[in-house]
Amino acid sequence: MAERKPEGYLNGRPLHPESLMMSYGYRPEWSEGAAKIPIFQTSTFIFKSAEEGKAFFELAYGLRSRRDGEQMGLIYSRLNNPDLEILEDRLTLWDEAEAAAVFASGMAAITTTLLTFLRPGDVLLHSEPVYGGTDFLFKHVLPQFGVRAVGFRAGTPPEQAELLLRRLGLTERLAMIFIETPANPTNDLVDIAACAALANRLSSVRRILVAVDNTFLGPLWQQPLNHGADLVLYSATKYIGGHSDVIAGVCLGSRELLDQVRVLRTIFGTMAGPHTGWLLLRSLETLKLRMTAQMKTARHVAAFLKTHPKVARVRYLGNLTEDDPQYEIFQRQCSAPGSMISFEVVGGEAEAFRLLNALQLIHLAVSLGGTESLAEHPATMTHADVDPEERIELGITPAMIRLSIGVEHPEDVIADLTQALEAV
Ligand SMILES: *Cc1c(COP(=O)(O)O)cnc(C)c1O
């Protein structure tokens, strides 16, 4: 799609992302007039001439800079493929990013991005808790490459993390701040702008990057780049895919940073395939509808849980009150509370398990963000690997259940929880 020039304006006015998800970056004349983008199920692309092939490779390997108006051509599906390129263009619209890269999984996006920017001797400062796979990468893999990960509790101000770094004498070696906000499964928020300010303060010759895993609220309800982050990461397996039928990941940011990420994606081979790209293009058409319906249903469910006598505590962003320091961060950083709810039943693991085993409509499964509601037990499932003492410190108690709310009718979700709570 060398000649592609994405449009996003009507009479000079920018169109909203949801209006562009059916058309942006694609011209039907490329594909026999097909209204929908075909799956470009091909490993390689035919050059018009040897000169063209030479020019594409010069750009792919960065042997020279682009001539005026020159676009990178299609070479080979580990480097580029129309299903991925169009998807990447559409993804940039939600986060107002210059560039995007799609990966075979959220973990492929995170590992490829981190290995692009971290070097032996570097320090990575990160919020805690983070996704299990990310946690394993930080604690067990990065140290083997000479990178030291230092965690700070989500919900504590980043200034405290700075004090910790100073105490350890590591401020000079800081290369990246990685945050996951809201934190899983506690919904604790990390202040993105405060992390960006900290990165600016500690940057010297080399700029310290701020990367945000935006899987839980993005791309609809939180745009980290607008709060000073440099990179946004997603498990597209969750809300972006939205149907629990595809594994994929995304990294977004400036063209300059993404050009570097894309080099390692090509070398590691961590890109997604064309069919995954096509599935995600289909998902994007209903992204706003799905996330809005899920968010609205979650409001009803959270309100129901809050007053239930067998529920001890509900962690849901929509329940934050003005006296909570997290409230101000929420107001500034998020445009809606999303659809992840964690709650504690009165009792412990036995009571939580009784509830989970009694559910009929809500499935008992990990993962989140899909059209169907899911429930799981963080302490023994997604966060089983976290040190037991640390788990309690983070607020992941044996009585906690995590809900991902789908697009079902709120009355039915509440009816299922009502009958399951009777079993407790
Ligand atoms: C699921 C998830 C990941 C990992 O994504 P995969 O697509 O499963 O590789 C990373 N971060 C968060 C917050 C997640 O929920």
Describe what this molecule looks like in 3D:
It is a single chain. By secondary structure, the protein is an alpha/beta fold. It folds into two domains: 77-284, Aspartate Aminotransferase, domain 2, CATH 3.40.640; 288-421, Aspartate Aminotransferase, domain 1 (Alpha-Beta Complex), CATH 3.90.1150. The chain is 37% helix and 15% strand. The protein is built from 14 helices and 14 strands. It has helices at residues 17-20, 50-60, 82-95, 106-117, 132-141, 158-168, 192-202, 255-268, 274-285, 287-306, 325-333, 349-358, 388-393, 410-422; strands at residues 9-10, 13-14, 99-103, 123-128, 148-153, 174-180, 209-213, 231-235, 249-253, 311-315, 340-345, 363-364, 374-376, 400-404. The strands form three sheets. The protein has a seven-stranded mixed β-sheet with strand order 3-9-8-7-6-4-5, with helices on both faces. Strands 10-11-14-13-12 form a five-stranded mixed β-sheet, with helices on one face. A hairpin with a 2-residue loop joins strand 1 and strand 2. Helix 4 (106-117) crosses helix 8 (255-268). The longest helix is centred in the C-terminal third of the chain and has 20 residues, at 287-306. The radius of gyration is 22 Å and the shape is globular. Mean pLDDT is 95; it is low at 1-6. The site of pyridoxal-5'-phosphate has 15 residues, from helix 4 and helix 5. Its cofactor is pyridoxal 5'-phosphate. It catalyses: L-methionine + H2O = methanethiol + 2-oxobutanoate + NH4(+); L-homocysteine + H2O = 2-oxobutanoate + hydrogen sulfide + NH4(+) + H(+). It is an enzyme of class 4 (lyase).
